[in-house]
Amino acid sequence: MQRTVKEIFHVRPTLEGAGVKLKRVFGFYEIPKFDPFLLLDHFGSQNPADYVKGFPWHPHRGIETVTYMLTGEVNHGDSLGNKGVIRSGDVQWMTAGSGIIHQEMPQRYNGVLQGFQLWVNLPAQQKMMNPRYRGLTKDDIPTVESQGATIKVIAGTIDGVPGPVKDLVVDVEYLDITIPAGKTFTRKTTKEYTTAMYIREGKGYIANHAVEPQQCALLTEGDGVTIKAQDTLRLLFISGNPLHEPIAWGGPIVMNTQTQLNQAFQELEAETFIAQRERVKPSTEFYKQ
Prior knowledge:
Shape: globular
Largest sheet: 7 strands, antiparallel
Strand order of the largest sheet: 1-22-19-24-17-14-13
CATH topology: Jelly Rolls
Oligomer: single chain
Structural class: mainly beta
CATH architecture: Sandwich
Distance between the termini: 35 Å
Order of helices and strands: EEEEEEEEEEEEEEEEEEEEEEEEEEH
CATH superfamily: Jelly Rolls
Number of helices: 1
Number of strands: 26
Strand content: over 45%
């Protein structure tokens, strides 16, 4: 059974962190439609004033954050002692688990600084797993030519070529797909997995439904989907195994119950949130969705 378009979502301007302008593709108000995905943000601007204030030290628990830079640079540091720069084409896959405090600070860029952040929920049994950090350079991410399309495989497998992110807690497929004008691309999918596509450039058709930039198509269940490009079409393709668990969301922390949320914020106040290798203190302004 082929998938069809269940619903179309339009981005909404959002201010996050210390004053970063971005476009929210989906988030708190769409719970649980995108399960196991919680949030997708598209950030991008040619004006450094829109992003240089960045995301100072802040906590996460119960989720994974996936930062994918198209162009530009973001400095990263965290309470595990990781430090580095996410550059054009790079991906940072961070599993917050039981707790991590980090900062993400975009650097001034001569051109359009642009990228995405995806949040993946963790199942109840892994909410308090040990945190981990994986930094991937653009050279780590394979590019596959298939059916006339060009696909960057961040997670999942295309034509036998696997992405570099292994040992995933939740089975997730994350692809950056470019389809030339007039070409058609068909993707097989696991029937019950939540599957969505975000159009970042171009116009086309997903399962015969017209789509355009800054729209996100959430699909029905099915074994596959057909995408046709009207002009060069660039999109993010995400698919994952839904958790079907309760969600208690408090800014950067996502748990299963309000009691767990309260405990997390009490630990933050008491500075017992994590066993820190480096002493870092989160901002008192926690993000609100």
